[in-house]
Design brief:
Radius of gyration: 14 Å
Largest sheet: none
Oligomer: single chain
Number of strands: 0
Helix content: 55-70%
Order of helices and strands: HHHHH
Distance between the termini: 30 Å
Strand content: under 5%
């Protein structure tokens, strides 16, 4: 995912922390005991911010014809989980 995000950021001329993966893993360690807002939204059947996060990245990638198999996979997985939980 980080490599796909990096390609998008380069095409969009957006600077990201380098190396991005180190920053991501640092945040994971620092927040490991927390529940994310998206986790809580899914747990309580609310709409998540997935469209604003991954949806935005996927849209920008499409504009630059950047393949995003991992981002697309996780977007679809979260969308399906959100749908399943909202049906309960």
């Amino acid at each position: 995912m980080c490599s796909e995000i990096k390609l998008i950021s380069l095409a969009e001329h957006i600077a990201l922390p380098s190396p991005l993966a180190d920053t991501v893993f640092n945040v994971i360690e620092l927040t490991a005991q927390n529940y994310s807002s998206m986790n809580r939204d899914i747990a309580f059947g609310r709409i998540t911010e997935i469209d604003y996060i991954l949806g935005f990245l996927l849209n920008r990638a499409q504009q630059h014809t950047i393949p995003t198999p991992m981002l697309t996979y996780w977007f679809q997985q979260i969308e399906a989980l959100q749908q399943k939980c909202s049906e309960k």
